[in-house]
Amino acid sequence: MREIGHVQSEYAVTLLWNHRSRSIGIRGHLGPEYAVAACLTKLTTKNNQLPQGAKTSSYLANLVFWNCEPRLYEALRTQGVTYSRFVDDISLSCRRTLTIREKTQFIAQVYGMLGSRGYHPKRSKHQIFTSGQRMAVHRLTVNSRRPTLPQEERSQIRAIVAECEGLFSSKVQGQEYNQTYNRASGKVAKLTRLHPIAGRQLRERLARVRPRRK
Question: Would you say residue 121 has pLDDT above 50?
Fold first, then answer.
């Protein structure tokens, strides 16, 4: 889990890069690995470009910086900075107080990597956190010893489980109920990864209102 490296930090930065500002050319990013590039290109592109909105887009977007991101990761690590990225969501954190000069330097290194591939950061989405406030990395809270889901999201998951219970007790079945149940089940699975006890409790509640088979 990429968020673990960011827990209990003193300082964190999150920023987004505009990976949809232009199509991602697969062959150009995979360089000499031609066999791999050619196969991916045939399977996932149209006119040699990655279509916006395709289900494969997020996976392939993670390959964009394959030959330069490891160097950035290592350069930051040697300076005590944790780096992680998922698609267009980049996070930096450090367990010590940083000077203004250091903050500027580390962010500039990330911008340099983006620019080397022709991409630009979404400056309006740039956020800086300190340990005195809720620190969110890849949509998870990392203030404590392990990543946690935001309280609001946990409440929403409990609410959808309660919705299933209400529908079940009202004898509502069919496609509508199945969709609600499946949505709740997926959200409980996500909760269980980070909050095992709470997740198991909700899973037991869902088991009692499982859709009836005809």
Answer: yes
